[in-house]
Amino acid sequence: MKRNSLLSLLASYEPEEGLEKEMYQNTVEFVQQHANCFERSLLPGHVTASGWVLSKDKDAVLLMHHRKLDRWFQPGGHCDGDPDVQAVAEKEVLEETGISDLNLLKSGIFDVDVHLIPANKDVPAHYHYDVRFAFGIDNDQDIVLNSESKDVKWVPLPAVQDFHDSESIMRMVRKTTAL
Q1: Has this prediction a pTM greater than 0.85?
Q2: Which tens digit of pLDDT belongs to each residue from 104-144?
Q3: Per CATH, is 4-176 categorized as 3.90.79.10?
Q4: 163: buried, middle or exposed (CB in 10 Å: 19+, 13-18, 0-12)?
């Protein structure tokens, strides 16, 4: 079963108490209930993966200004049927930023978030069950923009709130100090 690897990853993850724990439980239930949870065609929602990418000295994070949503986020995207969420997160970082040489900073999942994506053209509003991984870089790499982003930049951790101050993003900033 394609979901088993993700369910195993989720079982070994300990979310923060409160909102993240609630979203974590919702994600587990969603994955258990939907064999096609990795498919974008699942209209109520689907599993996505993203990468929280830290600079060499871990004092800055790589954020992209998303063209469609007009907000700053960590790189990430749809699994499109791929159950290997860590590999999807790495692929999305490469596609959206050009950064390819990544190392996992924390074994397993770094964060879990569930967020509503607004309706767009023929796609109704739906949920993203986002599984997030913490990556670092060991050497400087050129940033490359793609069509999904208006901008990509390294943002010092204390300045992240000036770009996006949602609990979802700020929770990852807080968790960064524990790495």
Answers
A1: yes
A2: 999 999 999 999 998 988 889 999 999 999 999 988 888 88
A3: yes
A4: middle
